[in-house]
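Z., the sequence and structure:
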Amino acid sequence: MVETPQPSRCHAPPIVARREFLRASGLGIGAIALDAMLQGDAPAQSTDSSAVSGPHFAPKAKHLIYLHMVGGPSQIDIFDPKPQLEKFDGDPAPRELYDGDRFAFLAGQPKILASRYKFQQHGECGAPVSQLMRRTADFVDDLAFVKSMQTDEFNHGPAQLFLMTGFPRQGRPSLGSWLSYGLGNENENLPAFVVLVRGTAPGAGRSIWDSGFLPSEHSGVEFRTSGDPVLFLKQPDGMPSGGAALLNDAVGALNSLQRDEFGDPRITARIKSYEMAFRMQASVPELVRISSEPKHILEMYGIRSDRPSFARNCLLARRLIERGTRVVQLYDELWDHHGDLHTALPRKCAQVDRPIAALLQDLKQRDLLKDTLVVWGGEFGRTPMIQGKVERAGRDHQRAAFTMWLAGGGVKPGQTVGRTDEFGRRVVERPVHVHDLNATILHLMGLDHLRLTHRSQGRDIRLTDVAGEVVDELIG
């Protein structure tokens, strides 16, 4: 019998790294566990391999500009007029308007609140638009309104996540990330997915442009509105000419050694991020230098200085997609009007109306609108019932019915899809769920929402979860 050597009392056994131990354990349980962990972060695997290398079919749109009004704009005061509300303004709301649904703040028996703004039909299609969006109204023949939008969530954070990721909690990839993952990029010097935020970040935070379980290279890159547009791109003071390139090459070589040794796909994503950051040192400063634009373009957008503004972000969006960026998302704050609706809403509309109209005109005159899908809306709408006192009236969140619009990029223009009841409270014709909207956006970009999937947590997950249908009426 061979005696088993005992470890010395004076010397601890050598420490073995957990990853090294798992790798050395052959085909045992350790190797299986390691493989599972790595697969969870591996590059996305679709049920159809073509889904990660380009469109599934000929796309109608190559780029997406998404204009998100954070907080939920009041459709009743902007795009969905309800004359019936005027007859009952100030009266107690019928029980059927508030029974059977959940609200963030409404309680008891609320009263009806009619819109204070005049509506007028515009364009050949005759779409009604209120006086608050006079300039956007000039482009109704280029728009397709969806007045029967519905979501599952009635609070801002979950509703923003649900709209952008198809799920009300953090951890899923955003719409822009899915598009970057499925279609790739057209410009190696700029990210495929860029985010521009005016004001504070949305309540859901940066999760609504995160890549979730997809490789991190598909996360949205936020361009700041003041100071350096992207942090840590600028070459440090005192670094000699060519030093940044040498440093980038050295870091890349070290990361490559680690990737080759451990096979961790997250290291590949990190290498790509560093390489993109190095290339952006030259491309981003030129991109954000809007002073190079002709004076009449700046005036068209209403840009009078280089200060942060929604107008400046709209112009940057055009400059980005012109250079090949796949997705640009614009977030504009302060559309959550629980009070002071009659002063706050006109102020917000005045801030965005001219830039939105200018963006549409600019895209058209550059022949970019046909290849660029533009989407406008919020995470939900607002109720026809008043919140608070009359002198400081507001509207609560409404998930059951709200309005969004789409333009360009293969959309059939000059039409309205869906209809709400006479109070604007519920959908009575052609409901369009958030999953349906996202399925339609993917379709216009050349992707089948059923085929664009990634295996995570034991199942194939997609943007539209287990639901969603393409809204055929929107396809031109």
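The chain has one domain: 52-235+288-474. The two ends are 83 Å apart (CA to CA).

Let me know what you think.
H.
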